[in-house]
Amino acid sequence: MKFTLAHVLIASGSLIWPLSGQAQSIRVDYTGTVTDIGTLLAGNGVDIGSQMTGSFTYDVATGVVSQFSHSFANGFTASLATPVNLFVQNDQQNGSATLAADGLIVGGASVSNASWNGLANPAMQFGLRQENAAGQLWNDTLPPDLSDWSLVSLAAINAPDWRWLDFNVPNLPSFADDQIRFSVASYSVAAVPLPAGIWLFLSGVMAALGIQKRKSVA
Predict the structure, then answer these.
(1) Which distant-in-sequence residues (6+ apart) come within 8 Å of 104 by Cβ?
(2) Does 123 score more than 50 pLDDT?
(3) Transmembrane residues, as ranges (predicted)?
(4) Regarding beta strands 167-168 and 180-191, do their DSSP bridges make them parallel or antiparallel, or are they unpaired?
(5) For 131-140, b where at least 16 C-beta lie within 10 A, e where not — what string?
């Protein structure tokens, strides 16, 4: 069978299309220091001053969070059990908020590597919110893209109106006395790159197109 330019384009398009959503994913990474622990979560090596890292990855088009995790200096880690939806708030849609604000919430059941003070597989929540006296951080309730994140500074994240949270003890009122609050030392936001294999595939496609073009010219 003779492969033409059309065959190459159709084949490459059919393989790339299912993976195109990966280019729309954004990953947020942050590091911080624990500043407060609710009494129900105190102990087992995580103390005020403990270092922690966290991250979450979401699709800009759908708002689905595919990855969400926290880890602490004592070795305790917890990761998202199943994908969840990102809740985005802005002044046009306040959700349960009583004041106009911008922010987002990631939350869901997790799987932990150990029991922390008798608590295993806690529900996690990561949230941030800023009352909007100074204007919008983002313009709608769609998941924030890289341009939206460029408006968020480290100083703003650590300001009193922002909330970066925590774990939830089952069978108690939501986040009643189980907060893990922390200051944010650093954070980064970046688009998730396509896997290296795709770039190799695209290189092959471009080479095939070049060969086809040279044959046509000949």
Answers:
(1) 86, 87, 88, 89, 127, 128, 143, 144
(2) yes
(3) 187-211
(4) unpaired
(5) bbeeeebbee
Binning the chain into helix, strand and coil, the percentages to the nearest 5 are: 25, 35, 40
Joined together, the tokens standing for residue 168 give 């939830």
CA 9 from centre of chain: 33
Q: What is the mean pLDDT of residues 192-213?
A: 54
CA nearest neighbour of 116 among 191, 49, 60, 168: 168
Per residue in 52-70, pLDDT tens? Answer: 999 999 999 999 999 999 9
Mean pLDDT value of segment 199-209: 49
Report the distance separating Cα 9 and Cα 196, nearest Å.
20
Provide the pairing of β-strand 64-72 with 84-85: antiparallel
- What six digits make up the tokens of 41? 């979560």
Q: What is the DSSP letter of 39?
A: G
- Provide the β-strand partners of residue 170: none
Contact 80, 70 (CB under 8 A): no
| Entry pTM | 0.73
User: Could you tell me the pLDDT band of residue 206, with boundaries at 50, 70 and 90?
Assistant: low
SS3 29: strand
pLDDT band at 27 (very low <50, low <70, confident <90, very high): very high
Q: Judge whether 195 and 18 are in contact, CB under 8 Å.
A: no
Residue type for position 139: N
Q: What is the DSSP letter of 20?
A: G
Find the Cα–Cα–Cα–Cα dihedral 133, 135, 139, 140, rounded to 10°.
Answer: 10
